[in-house]
Specification:
The complex is a heterodimer of chains A (about 300) and B (about 280).
Chain A: H1 2-15, E1 19-23, H2 32-37, E2 42-44, H3 49-61, E3 65-71, H4 72-76, H5 80-89, E4 95-99, H6 117-122, E5 128-130, H7 135-146, E6 152-155, E7 177-180, E8 185-189, H8 194-205, E9 211-215, E10 218-220, H9 224-233, E11 236-244, H10 249-259, E12 266-272, H11 283-289, H12 294-305
Helix pairs in contact in A: 1-7, 3-5, 8-12
Chain B: H1 7-28, H2 33-38, H3 40-50, E1 65-68, H4 74-83, H5 90-93, H6 124-137, E2 144-149, H7 156-167, E3 173-179, E4 182-183, E5 186-187, H8 188-191, H9 197-203, E6 207-212, H10 216-224, E7 234-239, H11 262-271
Parallel strand pairs in B: 1-2, 2-3, 3-7, 6-7
Antiparallel strand pairs in B: 4-5
Helix pairs in contact in B: 1-3, 1-4, 1-11, 3-4, 3-10
């Protein structure tokens, strides 16, 4: 995903001279092409994320379209007040990209995990929160974000994630993408869990359960039309995300549901628990710990369907 | 009045602004008067002698930017901008009133000439650095001035930006530190190891000067000299007195929070030599 990001930001910067990339001392060699093509519009801001966000806001106030990029917890938790005041309060078009989101950097420990940041950022007025599913959606999300005249946060994975879309889908902020049709249960997936959601649907199919799968890439603003539709059509809707079940996609949908009952469907939230992961684990093992595997989710869904 | 560099006139402007801040604090019942009085001369030197801004075209992309990062001193900025003709002086009379344009601390785009919503400390300099970098990218030659408080230098973002700006050789950027030796609840030199601010900024790669923050001529001279040809950003450590201009407010930190009474306004008026 980060390679897709690097390629797309380079293309965008070549086309649009307002686009500037600010990096928090990561992406060794990743942006060499951008640096060669647009040498005056790449800045390594060092390990100083709060300053980076303020700098980006100042650029946006001056008519540029800055994109900030570094590891997710550092570009979110670390500088939350700068995002809140410099970017959101002034409502300027800064794009904030967190790489290695969720459990991508599971092995580096909880300092590098980000299973709460969508919940925190979603509360900031006027900030769109995106979680593209694969490299193709990353390209679409970045294009949409740079052309969006308002603040945007995008969480992406690192590298080697499965590519779901054969071609780049039409990506609109706040418009979910249906990936597979089904009739018994609907899986709404945020971010890189889409591949696992599809595996879960495959597994359910072997047990005579037909699952619709949606890439629900925008956590804010919610695609309310899509929610209204799936909560009417299905008796079980499942949210899937590499994020706490509090505050992220599951939390957002639960809030939406509270305001739109009676819906005939039940909601099941699959995500990380309200805890720090203390065990040494690679991403796959961390997902297993939180029940974010096809087997675990299929079993929960079967149980919920009764 | 129109822009003028006549120092006697500017001294009168500064005294009138001081009285206005005292009246505003009284009328609205708002604190931080000592902090506002402390930076008046910095604002007057900048806005009358240095900063290239046109009140009739306040959003000119080529204008110099002046950010008052110490948002709690907003009355000083508001009174300055009104005096320079950015908006009607009557706006000062409804300061902090419900629905009025001028809030206790500036909101985004609240009034012509206000560059940034401030109030939380440590934001002005990083944003100012972004504006200065944007100027370079867009090939514009405006300058960016950021006025901060000494207490504000407790914030880590100040030092992140202080390291970043010289690395990018942002020589059209200038910070002015309103060094009145007080922060909200104590002596700023004791709460944190601030001294020597001049050495710190110089060590971070800035051209650092110490200046009497109430000497309009000296302030004007140093501010005008940005960029100074060294390739470095400029830091002015402006030695000031909190509550400057009124004997019973000067260097008394109670005036961080106290609201002046009518008889105190009259006493201040006399001391400021205003009828």
């Amino acid at each position: 995903m980060r390679n897709a990001f690097a390629k797309q930001i380079t293309e965008l910067a070549q086309r649009d001279e307002r686009v500037v990339l600010l990096s928090g001392d990561i992406g060794n060699r990743l942006f060499d092409d951008l640096k060669a093509k647009c040498p005056d519009r790449f800045f390594n801001c060092g390990v100083a994320e709060a300053n980076m966000i303020g700098v980006a806001a100042g650029m946006a106030m001056s008519g540029l379209r800055p994109v900030c990029y570094t590891i997710t917890p550092f570009i979110t938790y670390r500088c939350l007040e700068q995002i809140r005041i410099d970017v959101c309060y002034h409502h300027v078009p800064v794009v904030i990209v967190g790489t290695g989101a969720g459990l991508s950097y599971a092995s580096l420990g909880a300092t590098h995990h980000s299973c709460e940041e969508m919940g925190m950022l979603r509360l900031l007025p006027g900030l769109a929160v995106l979680a593209p599913a694969d490299a193709m959606e990353v390209r679409g999300a970045l294009k949409a974000a740079v052309n969006h005249p308002h603040p945007v946060y995008i969480r992406i994975g690192k590298k080697g994630e499965p590519v779901i879309h054969k071609t780049e889908p039409e990506f609109q902020i706040g418009r979910a993408i249906s990936i597979r049709e089904g009739k018994d249960v609907c899986l709404l997936s945020a971010g890189t869990m889409l591949a696992v959601a599809l595996e879960t649907a495959d597994l359910l199919a072997t047990q005579s359960v037909s699952a619709k799968v949606v890439s629900f890439h925008t956590i804010k603003p919610l695609d309310e039309a899509a929610l209204a539709e799936v909560f009417t059509r299905f008796k079980l809707v499942v949210t899937v995300e590499e994020h706490s079940i509090l505050g992220g996609l599951g939390g957002s949908v639960a809030e939406w549901l509270a305001d739109h009952s009676p819906a005939k469907a039940r909601l099941l939230r699959c995500g990380t628990a309200d805890e720090f992961l203390h065990e040494t684990a690679e991403q796959e093992e961390a997902r297993e710990h939180f029940g974010l595997t096809a087997a675990a989710m299929a079993a929960r869904i079967k149980h919920s369907l009764g | 009045m129109s822009a003028t560099s006549d120092l006697a006139n500017l001294d009168l402007v500064a005294r009138r602004l001081r009285l206005k801040l005292i009246q505003m604090s009284h009328a609205a019942g708002t604190p931080h008067l000592g902090s506002a009085l402390s930076c008046v001369d910095i604002l007057v030197a900048a806005y009358w002698n240095v900063v290239k801004v046109d009140p009739r075209n306040p959003s000119d992309p080529l204008r110099d930017r002046f950010i008052l990062s110490k948002g709690h001193a907003a009355t000083a900025l508001y009174a300055t901008l009104a005096e320079r003709g950015f908006f009607p002086k009557e706006w000062l009379d409804t300061f902090a009133a419900h629905g009025a344009p001028l809030a206790e601390q500036p909101a985004p785009n609240c009034a012509p000439g206000v560059e940034l919503a401030t109030g939380s400390l440590g934001h002005g300099l990083p944003v100012g650095v972004g504006m200065a970098l944007a100027a370079r990218i867009q090939k514009r030659d405006y300058r960016v001035f950021v006025c901060m408080s000494d207490g504000e230098c407790n914030e880590g973002t100040v030092w992140e930006a202080a390291m970043f700006a010289p690395a990018r050789k942002l020589d059209r950027l200038c910070v002015v530190i309103d060094y009145n030796k007080w922060q909200a609840t104590g002596r700023s030199n004791e709460i944190m190891a601030l001294p020597s601010l001049r050495d710190k900024w110089a060590a971070f790669g800035w051209t650092a000067h110490e200046v009497d923050g109430h000497d309009l001529a000296a302030l004007s001279r140093l501010l005008k000299n940005v960029p100074d040809g060294s390739g470095k950003p400029v830091a002015l450590i402006a030695h000031t007195i909190k509550g400057k201009g009124v004997s019973f407010m000067q260097d008394d930190n109670n005036w961080h929070y106290r609201i002046p009474k009518p008889e105190e306004i009259e006493a201040a008026r006399k001391e400021l030599g205003l009828a």
